[in-house]
Amino acid sequence: MTDRLEQQFAFLREVEKLKSVTRATPIHDASRPENSAEHSWTLALYALVLADQAAPGVDALRAVKMLLIHDIVEIDVGDVPIHSAGGTAHSSADIQAAELTAATRIFSLLPKDMADEFQALWEEFEAAETPTAIYAKSLDRAQPVLLNHQSGGGSWIDYDVTWDQLETRVGSKIARGLPGVWDWVKTRIRPWFADRGL
């Protein structure tokens, strides 16, 4: 039991570092950037609150687990904004390889049974092929959009994002798992872009 607790607390000490990873998206009042731990916690709530919007076959509690751990890799890799480098950096092979290496390192701090479970959850989320992973990934795309809108534009301004870019890079991924949510979000954020000729 002592060895198991040592491993569990080693992991928990390591993931405290996620609180120091700054994201591109500001918090609601634009007073500072959001950190990755705040993002993950908020997404866990999104998964619970919006569970009635999920497609059949979605396990909302499994989605909560995915969302709590999905960005742990940013401890090593940092946040890679979806609109950076013209939208290509986020999904580059180099970033994906670095994130896999980070996931393996960080989850290996846990006892093997937990390490295997967390690695599998993380890989399922990244692949976004199961109904639950598609749901979780859609939430991960929706939350920054709503924060950017709430904060007056946030990283959309920083990265010169147009409506077409947002719809292609983000909207399509939200709509894949949560079409009703994307329709609701779109009606609220589209005017912000239209008012700026974007």
UniProtKB/TrEMBL annotation:
Residue ranges constituting the HD domain according to the UniProt record: 15-182
Keywords: Hydrolase, Metal-binding
Top-level taxon in the UniProt lineage: Bacteria
InterPro entries noted in UniProt: HD_domain, YfbR/HDDC2
Keyword Iron: no
Protein name as annotated: Putative hydrolases of HD superfamily
Gene3D superfamilies on file: Hypothetical protein af1432
GO MF term set: 5'-deoxynucleotidase activity; metal ion binding
Pfam family, one: HD_3
Record's keyword annotation contains Metal-binding: yes
SUPFAM superfamilies: HD-domain/PDEase-like
One GO cellular component term: cytoplasm
